[in-house]
């Protein structure tokens, strides 16, 4: 279910995208999550979108379940959601919406319900973002028109590359991210997903073109401000919002370790918007 969320913000704001906490997993970097929440809380122009996979939420009958990987005090999935909700209380008023993730939704298919929609969002008084959402940022004065739109989703699949060189491997990941997102929505200037546990950003690429002005040839780029309908896929930002789940920790054989996943950076994304324009999407490594 896709949600459309409209939000009035001042023309200068920082928008943080963070998620994939997997609360309950011993491998979670709890100190990094604490740092992230504190960073958002103390940012006077900071807002947040939570990207889903709030809790590990793996039930006993699941083949991925291993008691040794779960924190002793949080073996109940209910406690996982209570605990992650409490961690968000200091920034509840700054969260624009919360996505549900594939880990969260598994519980719905087991008859438990979507704890993000039915518990976390209600408890914090924050809108539910479904699996996928369109975020329409508006000016406080309705007459001044639109600012920008962002398409966000918990996301799909992994972003991996078998290329042997780091340059090629990185660009392959960016290409898969872009390919996965670009046809999902047409009028967003940025498209962000979680799920893949990668902290990567692909900035817009603008075609160079020449024009003649008063008898002189000038260079211009095809990237311009987009307020309207279709934004060329090459002119959009793409991002994957990282995670707070380490692949390897001492004393525990994690799911990631068993499957041979490479280490991932722990962190989140910060979209820097000034004068209603997306100036940058920064990787915040924690
Ligand atoms: Fe995840």
Describe the structure.
The protein is of the alpha/beta class and 286 residues long. It has one domain: Metallo-dependent phosphatases (Purple Acid Phosphatase, chain A, domain 2), CATH 3.60.21.10. The chain is 22% helix and 28% strand. It has six helices and 13 strands. The strands form three sheets. A six-stranded mixed sheet has the order 1-5-6-7-11-8, covered by helices on one side. Strands 4-3-2-12-13 form a five-stranded mixed sheet. The longest helix is centred in the middle third of the chain and has 16 residues, at 166-181. 38% of the residues are buried. The model has no long low-confidence stretch (mean pLDDT 93). The protein binds fe (ii) ion.
CATH topology: Purple Acid Phosphatase, chain A, domain 2
Largest sheet: 6 strands, mixed
Q: Given this structure, which CATH class is correct?
A: Alpha Beta
Low-confidence stretches: none
Q: Which distinct ligands sit in these coordinates?
A: fe (ii) ion
Number of helix segments? Answer: 6
User: In which range does the helix fraction lie?
Assistant: 10-25%
**Classification by helices and strands:** alpha/beta
Mean pLDDT across the residues is 93
Give the N-to-C terminal Cα separation. Answer: 31 Å
Which superfamily, in CATH terms, is the homologous superfamily? Answer: Metallo-dependent phosphatases
The total domain count is 1
Radius of gyration from CA coordinates: 20 Å
Topology:
Blueprint lengths: L1 E7 L4 E6 L11 H12 L4 E5 L26 H12 L6 E4 L3 H8 L5 H10 L7 E7 L7 E8 L12 H16 L8 E4 L5 E4 L5 E6 L2 E6 L15 E5 L13 H4 L8 E8 L2 E9 L1
Parallel strand pairs: 1-5, 2-3, 3-4, 6-7, 7-11
Antiparallel strand pairs: 2-12, 5-6, 8-11, 9-10, 12-13
The chain binds fe (ii) ion (FE2).
Fe (ii) ion binds next to loops.
């Amino acid at each position: 279910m896709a949600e459309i969320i409209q939000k009035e913000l001042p023309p200068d704001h920082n928008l943080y995208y963070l998620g994939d906490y997997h609360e309950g997993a011993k491998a979670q970097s709890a100190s990094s999550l604490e740092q992230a929440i504190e960073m958002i809380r103390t940012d006077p122009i900071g807002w947040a979108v939570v990207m889903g996979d709030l809790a590990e939420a793996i039930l006993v009958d699941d083949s991925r379940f291993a008691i040794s990987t779960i924190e002793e005090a949080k073996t109940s999935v209910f406690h996982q959601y209570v605990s992650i909700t409490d961690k968000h209380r200091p920034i509840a008023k700054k969260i624009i919406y919360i996505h549900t993730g594939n880990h969260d939704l598994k519980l719905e298919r087991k008859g438990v319900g979507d704890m993000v929609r039915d518990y976390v969002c209600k408890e914090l008084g924050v809108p539910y973002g479904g699996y996928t959402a369109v975020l329409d940022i508006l000016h406080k004065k309705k007459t001044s028109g639109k600012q920008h739109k962002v398409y966000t989703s918990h996301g799909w699949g992994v972003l991996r590359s078998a290329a042997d060189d780091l340059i090629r491997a990185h660009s392959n990941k960016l290409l898969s991210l872009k390919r996965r997102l670009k046809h999902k929505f047409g009028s967003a200037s940025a498209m962000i997903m979680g799920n893949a546990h990668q902290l990567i950003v692909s900035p817009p690429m603008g075609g160079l073109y020449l024009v003649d002005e008063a008898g002189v040839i000038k260079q211009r780029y095809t990237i311009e401000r987009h307020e309207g309908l279709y934004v060329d896929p090459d002119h959009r930002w793409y991002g994957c919002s990282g995670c707070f789940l380490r692949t390897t920790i001492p004393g525990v054989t994690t799911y990631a370790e068993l499957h041979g996943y490479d280490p991932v950076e722990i962190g989140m994304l910060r979209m820097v918007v000034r004068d209603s324009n997306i100036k940058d999407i920064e990787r915040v490594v924690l």
